[in-house]
Specification:
The complex is a heterodimer of chains A (277) and B (447). With 277 residues, chain A is α+β, with helices and mostly antiparallel strands. Chain A contains eleven helices and eight strands. In chain A, the strands form four sheets. In chain A, strands 1-4 form a two-stranded antiparallel ribbon. Chain A has a two-stranded antiparallel sheet with strand order 2-3. In chain A, strands 5-8 form a two-stranded antiparallel ribbon. In chain B, strand 13 and strand 14 form a beta hairpin. The radius of gyration of chain B is 22 Å and the shape is globular. Chain B starts with 32 loop residues before the first strand and ends with a helix. The chains are: A alpha+beta (277), B alpha/beta (447).
């Protein structure tokens, strides 16, 4: 009987002691608590997809970094958040600073997928593995290989396989421009561009001469410079290293003449771009 | 003590040796080396070796002779490339390397059929200084001909803080089908030993081992008989080793012969050893005694061809020409591999040119098995000669967790293929490891 009383008394004292300790901690360690509160408030405005494109383990971890220092917005930009003007405004109000939303971006695939198959690849189903064997199973060794390494990392499932052409296509509506796919692509065929890009080149074949046995496809850029010659106001920039046309990412000039002039019809119009109005 | 399959084996039994035992299939072992017919046209890629690609020195329509330098070394870890036929430069094209997937230049030369050589003046190595020998080796375009194609002159100049005490001559040829090194030892043993002697002089060591697997008793006998006859300086012995794959991998080999283990991420020179292939030694002999640059090598053509042969082929010869010379491939052949079946690389076309590292052209029928799930049986761990845990790699590669791969020492893998060969679930482990290695290397660059 005595033993039981000792035990009950002991546990009660321990319980009370812990209660007091928690109360004191709550009272005298307010900074931690405030940090957590701030993090939670910031996290409200973040997308909450935990895609990891910013380089942090998730949205809550990102919010924690922002709570520490707001320079995180520029060092590790969250593209999805910056695209959302309302969220940016509310966040700016809350933090008492002026935040400017980023330009909406989007991923595009520089390949039209017309290349013939050179050999039947039978290894591990990833582009990374397929690429290691003579630069891919397609005749064009710069083409999209279509195994969908990029699909695995896309946080919003915006990438789909085109089984017939064996390439991937990106849904411009769903894409948030986070850039994870471009980092993942071993063929470097995906590029992140402003969402209002009026047109893009659907080819990635950079060598100036044909590689015997690895000829470019019917829809390949032939480096003829016709698009560059017809563009009078600098819509098309000629990249002297790759010998391919490029389009300015800031001016975003529509180049209807260049699209018309391309003998291979490989400059594709993006009709969803606002610049065409 | 050998244990039979299925017999109880304690988990903590110390493994005697690691590796696998694929069937030898050395079909061409009894065939003497034959010169292959002169090619009508050769394609010579400028990057046939590890290191910087060579820089082209010739233009279209230039006349060249056999052995003429057509591209100079592009750096210290690089070698020149020589023309392998006499004739006219037809064009310079771009090719994609099967190994690195990089685009590089290649020189196409049309043969005039005369086979005229440039003037080659040999010399006695005893009259040459160490620097002269190194310069001659570099000018001859020598690379490691076992398959790794590392420039030989670099291997012959180990850093001063790493003293070398022994040289191991790799005549193991553990890959199935390949017999080029065996035939070389039987027919050109003297050249190999003289090459070894030159190498020992340059490096300045007294001990030479000639490692041969015991499935080639004729080669062991031939080499043993030659050593006393030539009266070479230094202590050279023939080591007969129990056949096992991958004994020809340099790290496995020196562990077996000398009991030394190469440190993680290290090279054999870290433990005072240089390992050199027999074909390279013959090439060193030719470069010094005859003054001949590297323009040809022994290539085993085997697999499902009518008549497997060992051919002395010029670099740049199309593989289909060699197969044709061996009576052609049998009708069900649909795959061609440069190298052995374990580590070789499948080629995209039968017309791929022979290169400095091509020791074998293997024609086979594709037998692809369906990959199933890993049952974590540990067979791959028993097979791994480098004491790695291959079963961990596919999972981390699939989940793109590349940083962890480094903690499992993925860069130590020699890609011998033993784990893939033994895997009961048919998982292409080496392919996953290759992806992982490339990604881990990229991580290193980012940091």
């Amino acid at each position: 009987m005595d033993g039981q009383i000792v035990i009950i008394t002991f546990l009660t004292i321990v319980g009370l002691g812990c209660g007091v300790a928690i109360y004191l901690a709550n009272k005298f360690l307010p900074e931690e608590n405030e940090m957590l509160k701030k993090t939670e408030e910031i996290a409200q405005f973040l997308p909450g997809m935990n895609c990891g494109a910013c380089g942090k383990p998730g949205c809550f971890a990102y919010a924690g970094e922002v709570a520490k220092t707001t320079t995180t917005f520029s060092t590790h930009p969250c593209q999805t958040f910056l695209n959302d003007e309302e969220a940016v405004k509310s966040m700016g109000d809350m933090l008492g600073m002026e935040l400017s939303g980023g330009e909406k971006k989007i991923a595009i695939v520089h390949c039209a997928g017309d290349s013939d198959v050179l050999y039947e690849y039978e290894g591990v189903d990833t582009c990374k593995a397929a690429r290691q064997l003579s630069g891919g199973y397609k005749q064009c060794s710069f083409a999209c290989l279509g195994f969908g390494d990029c699909m695995d990392v896309c946080p919003v499932d915006a990438i789909h396989k085109d089984e017939q052409k064996r390439i991937v296509t990106i849904d411009p509506e769903a894409c948030i421009g986070c850039g994870l796919c471009a980092k993942e692509c071993p063929q470097v065929v995906i590029e992140i561009v402003p969402a209002d890009m009026p047109q893009y080149l659907a080819c990635n074949y950079t060598p100036r001469r044909d590689i015997p046995g690895r000829e470019k496809c019917d829809l390949g850029c032939i480096h003829c410079r016709k698009c560059f010659k017809v563009s009078e106001n600098g819509e098309v920039i000629w990249d002297k290293e790759t010998f391919m046309p490029k389009f300015d990412h800031e001016l975003l000039l529509p180049a209807p003449a260049a699209i018309e002039a391309c003998p291979k019809d490989v400059i594709l119009k993006r009709s969803s771009s606002k610049k065409w109005k | 003590m050998t244990k039979l399959k299925g017999e109880h084996m304690s988990l903590f039994d110390k493994k005697k040796s690691q590796g696998v035992h694929p069937p030898g299939n050395k079909m061409a072992s009894g065939k003497a080396i034959e010169p292959a017919p002169l090619p009508t046209q050769v394609v010579l890629p400028l990057s046939q070796h590890i290191g910087a690609p060579a820089k082209a020195l010739v233009k279209k329509n230039d006349e060249v002779l056999v052995g003429q330098v057509i591209a100079e070394a592009g750096g210290f870890v690089s070698v020149p490339i020589h023309s392998t036929v006499s004739g006219k430069v037809k064009k310079i094209i771009q090719v994609i390397s099967a190994v690195t997937s990089r685009v590089g230049d290649a020189v196409v030369i049309e043969s005039d059929g005369k086979d005229e050589w440039v003037e080659c003046t040999g010399a006695d190595p005893n009259t040459l200084s160490k620097e002269d020998i190194l310069a001659k080796v570099k000018d001859a375009g020598l690379v490691g001909m076992g398959g790794a194609t590392f420039p030989t002159h670099v291997k012959l100049q180990p850093p001063k803080d790493k003293p070398i005490d022994s040289i191991i001559v790799n005549g193991c040829e553990c890959e199935p089908y390949i017999t080029s090194d065996q035939r070389l030892m039987l027919e050109h043993g003297e050249e190999i030993l003289r090459g070894l002697s030159i190498m020992m002089k340059v490096i300045g060591c007294q001990r030479g081992y000639i490692a041969i697997e015991d499935n080639k008793p004729d080669a062991i006998q031939a080499m043993q008989a030659l050593i006393p006859k030539l009266e070479l300086p230094g202590n050279i012995t023939v080591e007969s080793l129990k056949t096992q794959y991958p004994l020809g991998a340099e790290k496995t080999l020196l562990k077996r012969i000398l009991g030394r283990e190469v440190p993680i991420g290290g090279l054999p020179m870290d433990v005072g050893v240089v390992v050199q292939n027999v074909s390279t030694l013959k090439a060193i002999h030719d470069a010094i005694y005859l003054g001949r640059p590297l323009v040809q090598r022994v290539v085993t053509v085997s697999g499902i061809v009518k008549e497997p042969k060992n051919l002395m082929a010029r670099f740049g010869t199309s593989a289909s020409d060699l197969i044709e010379f061996c009576g052609g491939a049998l009708p069900d052949a649909d795959e061609m591999i440069f190298g052995g079946p374990m580590m070789g690389i499948a080629q995209t076309s039968f017309d791929t040119p022979i290169q400095k590292g091509t020791n074998s052209v293997l024609v086979k029928k594709n037998t692809k098995k369906k990959e199933t799930n890993c049952i974590r049986c540990g067979t791959c761990i028993n097979a791994c000669p480098m004491d790695l845990l291959p079963l961990m790699y596919p999972a981390y590669v699939k989940n793109k967790d590349y940083a962890v791969l480094n903690e499992y020492y993925i860069l130590n893998c020699v890609e011998c293929g033993s784990c893939t060969y033994d895997c009961p679930a048919n998982i292409p482990l080496v392919q996953y490891i290759k992806i992982g290695k490339a990604e881990v290397a990229k991580l290193g660059v980012d940091k």
